[in-house]
Amino acid sequence: MKLSRIKAGAALLMLLVSYAAYAQGWRQTPLLDPARAERVALAERVIREEKTDDAAERILAELYWQRYPDVAESPVFGRQGRLGIQGAREHYQRHGRHEGRVWGLD
After folding, report:
1. pTM of this prediction?
2. Other C-beta atoms within 10 Å of 71: how many?
3. N or C: less crowded end of the chain, CB within 10 Å?
4. DSSP-based three-state secondary structure for 48
5. 3-state DSSP: the chain helix, strand, coil percent, rounded to 5?
6. In 3-state terms, what secondary structure has residue 67?
7. pLDDT of residue 51
């Protein structure tokens, strides 16, 4: 009888530890990451509100991407990024200016 209680207690303890480990991993999923939600919301806002497709913007973006290949490869700000042609300008406004990068024909 005492042995079966020990087994039941050990099983319960293992169940609780397993659940705690699962819960910890579940909380850290990218789907629940508040920073990710903010980045996605920003991308959607930029695409919806500031989407332009004129020749001048295309030229400026291409110059920026040529000047900074790391940005051109970005999944958010790059040539194939979610922000499209606005990715280059958005990167400059959010990061590039503070990093000393150059925008435009300079």
Report:
1. 0.51
2. 23
3. N
4. helix
5. 75, 0, 25
6. helix
7. 58
